[in-house]
Amino acid sequence: MAFVLQSFKSYFCSMEQSVYDLLMSKSEKHRLEFLPHISIDCVVFGFHEASLKVLLLKMKGEDTWSLPGGYVGKQEDLEEAANRILEERTGATNIYLQQFKVFSDPNRSQHFFAEMPDALWHKQRFVSVGFYALIPYLSVTPVSDEASDVCLWCDIHDMPALMMDHQQIFEGALLSLRRELTYKPIGYNLLPEEFTLPELQKLYEIILGRKLNRGNFYRKIMAYDVLDKLEGARRGGAHKAPYLYKFNQEKYKAALHNGFKDNW
């Protein structure tokens, strides 16, 4: 959830009055623009240098990290709101976006706001809708919001502690991505346009959290018939250059719609 604070006392003592005024002024603006009691939290995945990344925000003046999030406009549906939030944080459009779970624990944010003014928009109970997104790492420039110092990519195996229930939301998104990987193709939104089979296998292994037999992987992925083999090969290594591939967009979209019969 956007603008979540660790506690009113600790944060108020460390922040300038202008920041507090900003939060209070945002409360009035939010009441006019957004639906009450419902928020969106987004787990944004990217893949770079054989590592799966997740996009995180660090709050101003605090060692507090969160997922990108926000609220639903009064004239928006959930996906429109999620796309708007992600475009604000990444500049990306036409994002692969998947709703995966609703987080409705009545105490999910209670202790963060217990001592804050009742007039603050963020103090009300929010049910959060979780989305995960797959974004080409090199195509976006992360942008922080008004309550954050930075917005940056973190390796999923080297993440800082997250506020509230955001760790649970992240873990739920990763589990959903793993489940989807078993019956749908993954990679078009994470890999560069041209890639090698070892690079695709590495992506699958990182998401699944386990090693895959190379021969079995190659046979299965080629049997799915979603790849086009290119004329060129990846140059520069000491060993035989691996062939380059790209996804056949028409077949890839059909596989997303119809799914695969076999899983990993």
What features would you describe in this structure?
The two termini are 34 Å apart. The protein has 264 residues and is an alpha+beta fold. The protein folds into two domains: 8-181, Alpha-Beta Complex (Nucleoside Triphosphate Pyrophosphohydrolase); 195-258, Arc Repressor Mutant, subunit A, CATH 1.10.10.10. Strands 1, 2, 3, 4, 5, 6 and 7 form a seven-stranded mixed beta sheet that branches. A three-stranded antiparallel beta sheet has the order 8-10-9. The chain is built from eight helices and ten strands. The model is unreliable at 1-19 (pLDDT under 50). Strand 1 and strand 2 (51-59) form a beta hairpin.
Poorly predicted regions are 1-19
Tally of individual domains: 2
Quickly count the helices: 8
Largest sheet: 7 strands, mixed
Number of β-strand runs? 10
Estimate what percentage of residues fall within beta strands: 25-35%
CATH class of the largest domain: Alpha Beta
Structural class: alpha+beta
The shape is elongated
Q: Average pLDDT value?
A: 86
Helix content: 25-40%
CATH architectural category of the largest domain: Alpha-Beta Complex
Distance between the termini: 34 Å
CATH superfamily of the largest domain: Nucleoside Triphosphate Pyrophosphohydrolase
Radius of gyration: 21 Å
**CATH fold category name of the largest domain:** Nucleoside Triphosphate Pyrophosphohydrolase
The helix/strand order is HHEEEEHEHEEHEHHEEH
Protein name: NUDIX domain-containing protein
Pfam family, one: NUDIX
